[in-house]
Design brief:
single chain, 257 residues, mainly alpha
């Protein structure tokens, strides 16, 4: 693709509201194009005085060159070096949030202490970015305390992603983690409750059996509830295409063991 088309895509990333589809389509196109020219432009934007340009530059670099056939960042070390100063120095919530998300996509462990610094940020979108990114490092001992803290955040989405990160993405299985997941089973938010059930099912925590059976008895059963049931039963008989009633019967059997 020529310079003119790349220029047009970068310009499109600055149109409309931040969450509009058109600018994000342009970001995705720049991911797909990748290459040194896109990197250079996005890296320069990370040093711009314009908060939106900094945010879009970080978003482009976070998944530069990624595709179904190439799941890794094209220039991971260089992209990390361009984004990290935003997380360390920027005060504006928008580029800070974008940069934190971008570091989660790059998955460089050097990002962990930089991201943890923002766990108590006053902006919920920034804390949400922290929860999302730290889920990529959920088994790192330095991350656990922060995710446990964010599992009690005032924002539903922050609690949801912290619970998903530690309970579902992570493999650690301590009493502290299981107890934190159990607390979230009674959360006010449905998504958080269901992620907690998945995390407890993955760890075969018997406390989750009764609320899980209750969730399977609801008129509508979500994929997360099925995932939690599958996690409990994975080591038992494998029966394809089970109905909620099949799961309930198997879980009741498990409850009586």
């Amino acid at each position: 693709m020529g310079r003119e088309q790349i220029d047009e895509l970068f310009a499109q990333t600055l149109t409309g509201d931040f969450d509009d589809q058109a600018p994000w389509d342009a970001v995705q196109s720049l991911h797909n194009i990748g290459g040194r020219e896109v990197f250079d432009r996005a890296a320069a934007w990370c040093s711009s005085d314009d908060p939106l340009k900094r945010a879009r530059g970080a978003a482009v670099l976070g998944q530069l060159g990624k595709s179904a056939d190439h799941p890794e960042n094209q220039f991971p070390e260089e992209c990390f070096s361009a984004i990290a100063p935003l997380v360390q120095q920027v005060k504006d919530s928008l580029p800070l949030m974008s940069a934190i998300h971008a570091l989660g996509h790059i998955r460089n462990p050097q990002a962990i202490p930089l991201v943890i610094e923002h766990r108590l940020h006053t902006n919920a979108d920034v804390r949400f970015a922290v929860a999302c990114t730290l889920g990529s490092f959920a088994d790192d001992p330095s991350v656990v305390d922060t995710l446990l803290e964010l599992m009690q955040d005032s924002d539903d989405d922050v609690r949801d992603w912290a619970t998903f990160g530690l309970g579902v993405q992570g493999e650690l299985n301590t009493q502290e983690i299981r107890d934190a997941l159990w607390q979230r089973v009674s959360d006010s938010d449905l998504d958080v409750r269901e992620e907690a059930l998945v995390g407890l099912g993955k760890r075969k925590d018997q406390r989750a059996l009764i609320p899980l059976i209750a969730a399977l008895n609801q008129p509508e059963v979500s994929y997360r509830v099925i995932e939690a049931a599958e996690a409990f039963l994975r080591e038992l008989e494998q029966t394809p295409n089970r109905s909620p009633d099949d799961y309930i019967a198997a879980l009741i059997k498990r409850l009586s063991l």
